[in-house]
Specification:
Number of strands: 3
Radius of gyration: 25 Å
Strand order of the largest sheet: 1-2-3
Order of helices and strands: HHHHHHHEEEH
Helix content: 40-55%
Shape: elongated
Strand content: under 5%
Distance between the termini: 41 Å
Length: about 240
Amino acid sequence: MSRLHEMAQEYLAIRRSLGFKLKGHDRMLSDFLDQLEASGSTTITTAAAVFWATSRPELSSLRCSQRLSVVRGFTRYLSCLDPESEVPSSDMLPHRSERRTPYLYSQEEITRLVEAAGPLGPELRGATYATYLGLIAVTGMRMGEAIALDRDDVDLGAGTLTIRETKFKKHRRLPLHHSTVAALDRYTALRDRLCSRTIVPAFFVTGFRPPTSRNGHPDLGEGQLGVHRKPLLKA
C-alpha cells in the first residue's frame, strides 16, 4: 500500500470516528489514487481530480460532482500534511439538486387520515396504523424511528419514548403528552390481547415487517394470527 493510500485510510478513520458514515468513499478514493499513481504522479492536482471525477461518460453531472467532492474532502486533510497537494475549488463541477417542496398536512387532514386507518382489518392492523400515524404526527418522529421502536423504548409510566441510534449513532428521549400516553396505552392493551406471542420486541406489531430494523428483526409473527410484517409505509 502506497503512502497516499495509507493517508486516505487515516483520513476516513478520523472522519468516521466523528460520526460520518462516508459510504463508498473507500472505493472511490482507492480508485482515484490508483489512477493517479498509474499516471506516474504522487501529488494530487486539481486537473487530476477533475479528470478522474469525469472519466466515466455514463455518469450524471450530479455523480461527477459527488466524486469530486470525495476527493476534495481528502485533499483538504492532505494539504495540511503535504502543501503541494491541490484542493479542487468548490465551484468546480457544480450541481444543485432540486428537492420537492414539503407538503404540510393540516390538523384536519391528519385527523381524517387517522380516522380512515382505524377501520382497516384485521383489528390489530387498523389500530397499529392509526396509532403509528398519530404518534409521528404529534412527536415529529421520522417514520423509520417510529417503526423501529421496541417495547422497552416506550415508557408509559414516565411518559417518554427513547429513540436509539439516530444520526451519528445518537439516542434521544421524547416527552409525551398525557393524551398520547393514553393512546399508546390503549394500543398496548389491544396488541397484547390479540398478539400474545411474538418472537421480537417490536412495539408496533401488525404482521408487518419494518423497512429497516436496528435489532435485525427476522420475522415479526403475529402470534395466533400467523402473518408476517411488511413495511408499514414505504419511506
